[in-house]
Amino acid sequence: MKRLHTLLLLLAALAFLAPAFALRADQSDALAGARARFEALAPAERARIEERWQRYQSLSPDEQHELDVRAQRAKELRQRAEQRLAPPLRARVQELPAAQRERILSELVDNETTRIGARMRAILPPEVVQRLEQARPEDRTRYFAKYQAQQRKRVTNYMFERLGARLGLAKEEIDGLKQLPEEQRAARVLELRQRLTQAETREQGLPPGLDQEQWDAWLALPPEEFFERLADHVRERQLAGVDAGIGRSGARRPEIPEQNLQRVRGLRRLQEATQAEPADLVELADTTPEVRAEEVVARTRERCLRVLAEERLAEGAELERLQHLPAPAFAGAVHELLAPLRAPWKAQVQEKH
Amino acid sequence: MKPDCRSFRIRLESTLEGARAQSELTSLAWHEHLLACAECRALLESEEALELLLESLPKPHLPPRLARRVLARLRAGDERREAQLDRLLELDADTRAPGDLARRVLAGLEAERVQPAETRLDALLERARAVDLPEGLGKRVLAHVAEERQLTRRRKPVLMRNSVRLAAAAGLLALLFAWAVWHKSTAPTRERDVAHESVDPRMLEHIEVLEQWDFLRRNDLDAVLSTLPHSDQLLLEMGSEEGLLGG
């Protein structure tokens, strides 16, 4: 009895104190981690951080909040950039000294930023892209945030109606979806879209251009990745002038203009080649940032020239001319070649019909 | 027996049980019943003779504080048992131990020590054969002592009970342990705090923003577009596919 009494008291004391200690330990760990990072910096870097802290404090509360939100998203971007690396390269990054790892990850984020920027520019209506480019830098973020919020509401409401009707959801359920918090709406639309695509595939067969093995592999992906793959596939076929045949008019054209499709695929390969290869950044991690930047540009140019030749996007004298162009002119010429990929979806659909 | 005889003998018995002096028995000799009853007269005479005999014997006398002295010698410091023995001997104030009690106690103590307490006490009392003690007295005395102990324990205040004191001590130990863990876990931080008092903790809380400052302060379109959550990027792509995006 005495032992039980003692044990109960002991447990009660620990249970009372444990959450407080856990919370304090978490906070303490986070702060200790931040302090360790700060202390690992060279004196010049520390001074730079302290100077930024002064600037941060001088910002308005709204601006500070905006930076905090962007920092969180930048962190996610960084994780995505890291995830895109092949496992051996990811392991190599993890083994780098702290400062070097930070530098490489920051360059990977820059690279990812360029890739996403290119993709988003191709999605947005040209007049929106133009307005964003012409906006004052200090207004650009706020302007895009407002535009994005409007479009999210518009697209999700439309998609809840359309996907809900196709999936046979009750009106109350659709209305309930429309009442979801803003941050949950996009994920829910993607989930419904995946469900609908699966249902349509059961009824009508696989989307054109895909085999069963490929389709099964896609179905196993999370909704976001599933949609990304499918959208790429549909986009590629639309750029080639082929009806996607997925969830739209239902019209399928068995005769695929192979030449067009090959060109679009070639252009997409070229588009990918214009972006620095994450593997190059990691392989060159031991060089100075300046040397690494030069080497990455040189390798990127080599890759573009190889794709231009292999995909027959440029041949003979044209290819030779491109090979001898200085870096800025070469980038401009490639940019022009990629123009068809920047055509908005809507224009493609309207032209087709 | 005649009623008068019964009445006289009750009185005689009462006088004897009260351990009256022999002079009181003599006063009974003038009782009128004896004038006519030879049997009762003979009985009284025999009782008087017995009382005279008893009074002529030396009175058994237990030296004062014998028990305390014996126990003090045998078990120095065991005051509790000494007190018990004192109480036991005081149960009958008229009891007088024979003169060789101490010797017999000393002689038998070693053998008795290995016996259970009840047996030992009975055996001890048995040594005084001159004292006519009721059978099983030791058992009853021990039972009474045990009952008294129980009552004493029950009367103890809650805070004086051993279990409560042990539990409180355990609780205190738990608190001390928790404090020690906390102290140890925060020691490096506190040491660094002392070493780097100039570092603003609020700055450290925003270290991620400050580290990515240049990227976060970039306002070029790629940077703005890339900080859109991935699901929202895909949603815009879907809107574009559906021709929904407005200008």
Tell me what the structure shows.
The complex is a heterodimer of chains A (about 350) and B (about 250). By secondary structure, chain A is mainly α. Chain A is built from 17 helices and no strands. Chain A has a domain of about 70 residues. Helix content of chain A is about 80%, strand content about 0%. In chain A, α3 packs across α5, α7 packs across α9 and α12 packs antiparallel against α14. Chain A is globular and about 70 Å long. The mean pLDDT of chain B is about 70. Among the domains of chain B are: about 55 residues; about 80 residues; about 40 residues, no CATH class. Chain B is about 70% helix and about 0% strand. With about 250 residues, chain B is mostly helical. Chains A and B meet through α1, α2, α3, α5 and α6 of A and α10, α11, α12, α13 and α14 of B.
